[in-house]
Amino acid sequence: MLPVVALVGRPNVGKSTLFNRLTHSRDALVADFPGLTRDRQYGQASYEQRQFIVVDTGGITGDEEGIDTLMAQQSLQAIEEADVVFFLVDARAGLLPADQLIADHLRKTDKQVFLLANKVDGIDGDSESAEFFSLGLGNVHQIAAAHGRGVAQLIQSALLPLEQEFPEMLVQKTAQEEELDAEEQLEKLQSLPIKLAIVGKPNVGKSTLTNRILGEDRVVVFDMPGTTRDSVYIPLQRDDREYIIIDTAGVRKRKKVSEAIEKFSIVKTLKAIEEANVVLLVIDAREGISDQDLSLLGFVLNSGRSLVVAVNKWDGLDTDVKDEIKRELDRRLGFIDFARLHFISALHGSGVGNLFESVDEAYRGATKRINTSMLTQIMKMAQEDHQPPMVRGRRIKMKYAHAGGYNPPIIVIHGNQVEDIPNAYKRYLMNYFRKALDVMGTPIKMEFREGA
Ligand code: GDP
Ligand code: GDP
C-alpha cells in the first residue's frame, strides 16, 4: 500500500509538469524511444526516497456552474481516494474565480490539502503568492514544477506524517541493492545509442546545425513516428558510433511534408532534454545570453543530463566583438564549469565536427563505471586532505561511498551527520570527485545517507 497524492487545479497551472517531475523515474532515461507516451492519469512516483501514487486530475475550468459540474466526476473521485491533495495555483496568473471555487470545495473535505503556488521561477515568489493566503487553506508553498524548485521540501513535509501509516513508502534499498541497480542501468545505457538533443531558443541556428551535422556525415536516415508536438528522432552513425539526434527544430519533418516552421515549444524542449543522454545547447553569439537561454540551461542542469554548449554564428565577427562575447560568457556561464564550450558556425560548418568529441566525452563521463572501493578511497583522501567542519558541536564523519546511478553519475555517501554537510564542503567534495574520476561534460550528483 502506497499513499495517493492527487493533483488538482485549473488547466495550465502546471499539474502535468509536476506529475512528470514526480513520476520521472531513472528508468525513463533508458525507456524505449520515442517512449514519450506515459500514463498521464496515474503514475508511480519516486521522489526523495519515497514512493507514492500520483493522480493527475483533469483541469477544472470554472466555466461550468456549481461545484458538482465544475469538478469533473473523476476529479471529485480522485480527491476522495487521495491521502493528500496538492492544489496548484498559478503565481503568475494570480488568483482567479475558479481557484476560489476549487478552494471552497477543498475546505469542506477532511483531506490534508497543500496549496502550491507554482511558477515562482524568475518572479518575486513572496509577493506574487501572498494573495493565495485568502483561500483559507493555510500555508502557501512556493514551487516551480518545471525546474523542481521547492518540490523536494514539499514532498518531505507532505509525506512525513504518512510514514507511520505507509511504511512501504520509504524506499529502503541496501547499498548493495542500489549498486546492483546502478550496474544494471549502466549496462542498459551502454547497449543503446547516444541520444543527443539539440535545443535552444528560436533562431539560434538549430535547424542549420542539424542539417549541417546530417549533411557532413553520410547518414542513413529513416523516419521515426512522432506527432507534431514531439521532436523528430534521427538515427545517425558516425565513426562507428550510433547516435539518435533528438531534433526539436523539426528539420526532417519540415523537409518531408513542407510544413511551416514549427513554433518553439518549451514542452517539446523539456521532453527532449528528459529523453536525451547529452544535451547540445545552442546559443546565438550575436544575441548574447538571454533569460531564455539561462532558463533552458536551468532545465538542463536540473535534469542531470550531460551538456555541451555551442555558441553559434561565430562567423564574420571582429576580434574585439568576439573578445567581448567571451567575457560575457565567462561572466554569466562561469557556474557551469563542467561543460565544454564550442564556438561554431553552423552556416559555414566551422567547429561543427569538433562538437562530437565533446559529446562523446560528456557521455563517457556520464557512464563511466564507478565502484565502491574506488569511491570510498577518493572520499577518504578528500576527507584527509580537508576535514569536514563540526556541525552543532558534532564531527561529521563520512564512512563509505557507492554508485547510485549513471547519467548523471550519482555518488551515495554514508556516514555520521553527513546530512548536515555544509554546501561549501559539498562543493569541495564534488570538485575532488570530478578531478579524481576525471569526468567532464556531466554534472555529478551526491546523495548523503545517515548511518552505516
Ligand atoms: P496543467 O494543464 O495544469 O497540466 O499544466 P501544464 O503542466 O501543462 O503546464 C501549463 C504551462 O505552464 C506549460 O506551458 C508549462 O511549461 C508551464 N509551467 C509549468 N510549471 C511551470 C513552472 O514551474 N514555471 C514556469 N515558468 N512555467 C511552468
Ligand atoms: P532555429 O530556429 O534555431 O532552427 O534557427 P535556424 O537554423 O532556422 O537559423 C535562424 C537564422 O540564423 C537563419 O537565417 C540562419 O541562416 C541563420 N544562421 C544559422 N546559423 C548561422 C551561423 O552559423 N552564422 C550565421 N551568420 N547565421 C546563421
From TrEMBL:
Residues that bind GTP 2: 200-207, 247-251, 312-315
Kindly list the positions annotated as binding GTP 1: 9-16, 56-60, 118-121
Which InterPro entries does the record match to this protein? Answer: G_ENGA, GTP-bd, GTPase_Der, KH_dom-like, KH_dom-like_a/b, P-loop_NTPase, Small_GTP-bd
Gene3D superfamilies under this entry?
3.30.300.20, P-loop containing nucleotide triphosphate hydrolases
The cross-references to Pfam families, in alphabetical order and at most eight, read:
KH_dom-like (PF14714), MMR_HSR1 (PF01926)
What does this gene product do? GTPase that plays an essential role in the late steps of ribosome biogenesis.
Protein name as it appears in the record: GTPase Der
Gene from which this protein is expressed: der
